[in-house]
Write a structure and sequence with these properties.
single chain; alpha/beta; Hypothetical Protein Mth938, Chain: A; five-stranded mixed beta sheet
């Protein structure tokens, strides 16, 4: 079942019946909580690929402060993935838009700034 995003605010996001304050992966089957981080590296990107997505979304925080390493950007460009890098509220909206259309989408969402 598609995760239902109820409320989005700096430091916490209300999805289904949970309030999430750490970073997380969002995919059409649910969420996977992560440790808070200030950068997305190759390890995080490879974990996203385990969901076999056609679209990958990076929610880079409410003020856009999450850093995506150069090796991730290089790997993303070489892949056949449709990549979107957006501030967290916009990333969540874009995720819902693609998921409702039946697309195989995964998102790494940063809950902080």
């Amino acid at each position: 079942m598609l995760p239902r995003i109820k409320k989005v605010e700096l430091g916490k996001i209300h999805i289904n019946d949970d309030i999430i304050s750490n970073d997380f992966f969002l995919h059409t089957k649910g969420i996977e909580q992560l440790e808070k981080t200030h950068k997305i590296g190759k390890k995080e990107f490879e974990r996203m690929l385990l969901h076999d997505p056609e679209i990958a979304i990076f929610g880079i925080g409410f003020k856009g402060r999450l850093n995506i390493t150069e090796d991730v950007m290089d790997a993303a460009k070489k892949s056949s993935l449709d990549i979107h890098i957006l501030k967290t509220p916009d990333a969540l909206k874009k995720f819902q838009e693609f998921a409702r259309k039946g697309k195989k989408v995964v998102a790494h969402i940063h809950v902080g700034e």
